[in-house]
């Protein structure tokens, strides 16, 4: 099993953190992982993306042009990465701020309204964990106990009091993700 993922959005949305948590969780399961971030100099507010590979086998290169899964969190990322999903792959997106929804007919498309749910939970900081929960519901690549351990490892100790809120957000993401399109 090898899963090649691009996570893309604005800096400050937790794009890189989401990728880091996936990778730490994969390491906890003895998998091979690759985490390759890319972001502009402006960081918060600018565009950011991270390529994540989780595999049972050695990873030959962290550089990819196509992906099994794209997790898209803003319109610029939709415009750039929708076409990079492999035929038969999957695209997950948050509808907040999206003006042109995905149009491909050869991939499965899911929507998770994480921004709305984070507002309901009264914590915008859990937005990325809601998205992560949606992804893990559709592709349960990792055991939840290892995702918990990945959260502990990636969050600075001063934020460990937020781990239970993050875990609640992951569960909410699993509950609210919706399939938008499934190829025939």
Distance between the termini: 24 Å
Radius of gyration equals 15 Å
CATH architecture: 3-Layer(aba) Sandwich
Flag low-confidence runs.
none
Strand pairing plus helix content: what structural class? alpha/beta
How are helices and strands ordered from N to C?
Answer: EHEEEHEEHHHHE
- What is the name of the CATH topology? Pyruvate-ferredoxin Oxidoreductase, domain 3
Strand content: 25-35%
The number of E-state strands comes to: 7
Helix fraction, binned, reads 25-40%
Principal-axes geometry comes out as globular
Keywords:
alpha/beta; 6 helices; single chain; 7 strands; 7-stranded mixed sheet; 184 residues; Pyruvate-ferredoxin Oxidoreductase, domain 3
């Amino acid at each position: 099993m090898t899963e090649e993922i691009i996570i893309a959005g604005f800096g400050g949305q937790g794009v890189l953190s989401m990728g880091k948590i996936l990778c730490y969780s994969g390491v906890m399961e003895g998998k091979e992982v690759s985490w390759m971030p890319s972001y502009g100099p402006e960081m918060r507010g600018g565009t950011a993306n991270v390529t994540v590979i989780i595999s049972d086998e050695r990873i030959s290169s962290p550089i990819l042009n196509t992906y099994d899964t794209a997790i898209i969190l803003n319109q610029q990322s939709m415009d750039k990465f929708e076409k990079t999903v492999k035929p038969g792959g999957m695209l997950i997106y948050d509808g907040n701020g999206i003006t042109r929804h995905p149009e491909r007919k050869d991939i499965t498309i899911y929507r998770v309204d994480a921004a709305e749910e984070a507002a309901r939970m009264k914590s915008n900081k859990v937005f990325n964990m809601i998205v992560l929960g949606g992804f893990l519901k559709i592709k349960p690549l990792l055991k939840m106990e290892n995702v918990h351990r990945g959260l502990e490892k990636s969050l600075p100790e001063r934020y460990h009091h937020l781990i239970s809120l993050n875990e609640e957000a992951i569960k909410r993401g699993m509950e609210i993700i919706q399939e938008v399109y499934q190829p025939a």
